[in-house]
Amino acid sequence: MNDLNSPQTAVICRICGESTVHLFLDLGRMPIANAFLSSEQLSQPEYTFWLKAGFCESCLMVQLVEVVDPNMLFHEHYAYFSSISRVMDEHFTQLATIIGEEILYDERLPVVEIGANDGILLQKLTEYTPNTIGIEPSANVAAVAREKGLHVVSEFFNMDLAASLCAEHGPAQLVVGANVLCHIPDLNSLARALEALLDAEGVFIFEDPYLLDIMTQLAYDQIYDEHVYYFCVTSLNRLFEKHGLRIFRIEHIPVHGGSMRVYGCRSVSSHPVEPSVTGQIALEGERGLESLETYLALAERVQRSRISLTELLQELQADGARVVGYAASSKGTVILNYCGIGSQMLEYVCDNTPSKQGLFTPGTHIPIVPIDQFAADYPDYAFVLAWNHLNEIASKEQAFRAQGGKFITHIPTARIE
Ligand code: JHZ
Ligand code: SAH
Ligand code: ZN
């Protein structure tokens, strides 16, 4: 752990190719965050990888050091359904309105959504233009989107697909993707594909968790197999600029614990760069995002956060309290495995996704149950494993609090809400 910054640990950057990636955070061996287990699978060995994050001194990209093959993550049974959250549904309604009212400019040109999942955004976009195409490699969620009547191609977005979409439907007036760009290991070829697909005046919009929020809130549980990159405006803009693209507007948005929405275009297009971009890049410099020390300091705070959580749970256990987990999120897999929290501490994890219920948490093997089970016999404490949804969960669970139940959250340090 202490030699993370020694020269021999510098590894090759996936973005710029230099051997200047310094490891700063080691979260240990980790199972795949969304690989929930059936009871038959509990006795079989689980795939694990080494969850370590690094910072590239040359291009400033924060990235995973070991990457899991996307085919192992996004396949016929992907566990995450975007439509499970009312707040996210409202969020995407707002995004669709901005797109419909400010961005779209030519009905004849297609709108392409990358990572369309169950169609939560794509469906809303069809209210503004008839010409929408969703790209979604995970077959089960793509099938849900198709049941809504949406046009979805069940493949990974890449250069070949971009070329065939462009040949068949024409250049895109918009390429949009939420919580997908940071999931794509080869971002250089993604940028080339984007450049190939976009119309001369076309726009791309991506939303991803924002590095500055991850740092400020100590949201280390955003670091897992699916999130290969942790973007700031500075690092992302440098990447795009290598490929004939640029960012012209950014918006800081509250979802998923703090995300960044970037608006970009081809370098040659007429969209002027807005002050939001230059202002945010300046802020990132002031906040030390260009310096390895900033990241090393984060790693120390993560270790202290882990101790605060395990101590709190041990105290509650010693007092004989009943504690459960609430929400079998991807982040939950990181928290539980990194902090060594298993079924000896959490009786179960309840979750509103039907396909997760009846399964067990990866690595820690805690049973996942429907929310009904929580409501039928309230525990003393519910540890919220999707702190980003705390408000939504708390508003649904007012009866739990009214009869004395309490929520626990864990970042930046563990506390009872
Ligand atoms: P939530 C996933 O992250 C994976 P996860 C992915 N990598 C990503 O970036 C984001 O999504 C977009 C449950 N829940 O949204 C449902 C309730 O039980 O934080 C889900 O299992 N009751 C693509 O998995 C989980 O929480 C509720 O009221 O960390 C959602 O976790 C609500 C609101 C959610 O995403
Ligand atoms: N946009 C939704 C879904 C995010 S989950 C939301 O914000 O809620 C990420 C989705 O991206 C998954 O459904 C996954 O199958 C898909 N995905 C992963 N890699 C992809 C790629 N290369 N091209 C297109 N979709 C991809
Ligand atoms: Zn680099």
SSE diagram, text form:
Blueprint: E1 21-31, E2 48-56, E3 62-64, H1 70-73, H2 86-103, E4 111-114, H3 120-125, E5 132-135, H4 139-147, E6 152-153, H5 159-169, E7 172-178, H6 187-197, E8 198-209, H7 211-217, E9 229-230, H8 233-241, E10 245-253, E11 259-266, H9 275-286, H10 292-318, E12 323-326, H11 330-339, E13 349-350, E14 368-369, H12 371-376, E15 381-384, H13 390-396, H14 398-402, E16 406-409, E17 415-416
Parallel strand pairs: 4-5, 4-7, 5-6, 7-8, 12-13, 12-15, 13-14, 15-16
Antiparallel strand pairs: 1-2, 2-3, 3-9, 8-11, 10-11, 16-17
Helix pairs in contact: 5-6
The structure holds ligand JHZ, S-adenosyl-L-homocysteine and zinc ion (ZN).
Write a brief caption for the model.
This protein has 14 helices and 17 strands. It is of the alpha/beta class. The longest helix has 27 residues, at 292-318.
Describe the structure.
- With 417 residues, this protein is of the alpha/beta class.
- 34% of the residues lie in helices and 21% in strands.
- The protein contains 14 helices and 17 strands.
- A seven-stranded mixed sheet has the order 6-5-4-7-8-11-10.
- Helix 4 (139-147) links the parallel strand 5 and strand 6.
- Helix 5 packs parallel to helix 6.
- The longest helix is centred in the last third of the chain and has 27 residues, at 292-318.
- The structure holds ligand JHZ, S-adenosyl-L-homocysteine and zinc ion (ZN).
- Residues 80, 84-85, 179, 226, 256, 327-331, 351-353, 356, 386, 388-389, 392-393, 396 line the site of ligand JHZ.
